[in-house]
Design a protein that fits this description.
single chain, 392 residues, two-stranded antiparallel sheet, 9 strands
Length: 392
């Protein structure tokens, strides 16, 4: 205890003071007002969490064969599903669900008012990632492993937003590390019973367990070769830590299926999720095969669209058939036939002489000239008979 007064003087920034004897938080959840809109630390932490989460999984997705365009296409669907699922699951758990949210439905999706349940985000994001992985033709379990690694990293900054917001309140406590919320705009001070009162720092406990879980997953991410196991580690780790940490949180105790075990809503959800994970674990260990070294994990065992064939070296690429030409006119066809007709072979000397002799014989007969002679060959004369039979 002697060191706490020293720390009190070293860390006294007005918005944060440590000891004695507690941790005092005096942070306005609103950073700045922009007209009717309020920029809050909680929303800013979501943005920071998304950016840091992408940086954390960058190397992992690259090793698994997922390019950045694919990651972004899956990411935006998952972020939307996480916000909707987390908000709806928070709303349905509230005791004033009917009197406030159903009576004024415009508040149901008003995330800027605060209040998110991470289990709801998990329940809606998992089927969303599974669906988008099928669209991208990659192994859904590989995409889910990357998704939970992203969630574990981003959730840390969400917990920082919870600490500033004062929306995770523990039971009253006199422990030296108890937190005291002093800002009138914090969620803790909306209830006079928890404003300026030392309580268990449940949000800090959540932050520390998230850090430990992320470190464990980063260690396993380079060693596990069976898709889906990293997802199981995260889900089991999250539901177990939530079940334990909610014993320190000042939430309503509810019954479930007629069972009154003194548990809160999140603890019942943790139990149900734990039971559901048992058969899922069996199926993953049974049917998800380790990826052999050298194979691309994202596409291993997943049918891909056939790629168009490319001409290899030495092969003549196929030439597309030209469209049929229009029929040519008569004049064009005649000119083409003349151009394409082969040249006649020159006649030999003997053929020429024989043709000349035949022509002369015919001419002589027609004219009745008995004395006409035709030279058949060089140096030979053959007498021709006249029409009356005499020889000339």
């Amino acid at each position: 205890m002697g060191i706490l007064p020293v720390l009190a003087y070293l860390i006294d920034w007005g918005w944060l003071r440590i000891g004695p004897p507690y941790i005092y938080i005096n942070i306005n959840p609103v950073i700045v007002y922009l007209g009717p809109l309020a920029l809050r630390w909680y929303g800013l932490m979501y943005v920071v969490g998304i950016v840091i989460g992408l940086r954390v999984i960058h190397g992992y997705t690259a090793r698994k064969g997922m390019n950045q365009d694919m990651v972004y296409r899956i990411l935006w669907w998952s972020v939307a599903a996480g916000l909707i699922g987390g908000r709806l699951y928070f709303v349905v758990q509230q005791p004033n669900f009917v009197s406030y949210y159903l009576a004024q439905p415009q508040h149901i999706l008003a995330t800027w008012e605060g209040g998110m349940a991470f289990f709801g985000a998990i329940f809606l994001v998992i089927p969303t990632i599974f669906w988008r992985a099928r669209v991208e033709r990659i192994n859904p379990l590989v995409a889910l492993d990357a998704g939970v690694l992203f969630a574990a990293a981003g959730q840390i900054f969400g917990r920082i937003g919870n600490i500033i917001n004062g929306d995770i309140i523990g039971y009253r406590s006199t422990l030296p590390w108890s937190t005291v919320y002093q800002n009138s705009n914090s969620w803790a001070c909306l209830n006079p019973a928890t404003c300026n009162v030392p309580v268990q720092p449940a949000s800090i406990y959540e932050l520390l367990t998230n850090i430990v879980l992320l470190l464990l997953m980063l260690y396993l991410a380079r060693r596990l070769r069976r898709p889906g196991v990293l997802m199981l580690v995260y889900l089991f780790g999250y539901c177990i830590t939530q079940f334990a940490l909610f014993f320190t949180r000042d939430n309503l105790i509810v019954s479930f299926l007629g069972l009154n075990w003194g548990l809160k809503q999140a603890q019942w959800t943790s139990l149900v999720l734990f039971l559901v994970l048992l058969p899922i674990t069996y199926l993953i260990l049974r049917y998800s095969k380790p990826v052999p070294p050298g194979e691309v994990a994202a596409t291993y065992g997943i049918p891909q669209k056939p790629k168009p064939a490319l001409a290899t070296a030495g092969e003549t690429p196929e030439i597309e058939e030209a469209p049929a030409a229009e029929p040519a006119s008569n004049s064009e066809r005649s000119e083409a036939e003349v151009e394409e007709a082969p040249a006649a072979e020159p006649a030999s000397n003997s053929d020429t002489k024989r043709s000349e002799a035949e022509v002369k014989e015919v001419n002589g007969t027609a004219n009745g000239q008995g004395d006409s002679k035709d030279t058949l060959s060089e140096g030979q004369v053959t007498p021709l008979r006249s029409s009356d039979g005499s020889t000339g």
